[in-house]
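#struct-help
A.M.: can someone run this one for me? Single chain, 121 residues.
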Amino acid sequence: MHQTDEKPWACTYRQIDWKAKCIGSQKLDYILYEFGFFFDAHRAYDDCLAVLRLLRQTLPVSRQTVLSALAKVAYEPTIRLSAVGSPFDMKDILKVRGYRWNPGDIGKPKAWYIDVDQNAA
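D.P.: on it. Structure tokens below:
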């Protein structure tokens, strides 16, 4: 579980398997297009409204709302794995495997990382 001020956290981009739900991309504009909506992407206000609209949608396979699916994963514990000290030439391999770059914000080490389900680790 991601924790922000001790609150459960979940991400529509990373924590919903859109392909398993018959949606071919995890990008917000594409997902909403699949549900029949268009919005002015990358404008903060419009992005917020778009996510609210997305959370109300019913997923085609499970027939549950996106909010329900997201709430379910918000309480699943996760572990952050970091590739600390990995050589620069490994970056492309790490990206393909789903790792993201942490530039050393908030006292964390500069490293590639990935959050995984604790039960899968």
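A.M.: thanks! The chain is about 30% helix and 20% strand.
D.P.: also worth noting: Residues 78-117 form one domain.
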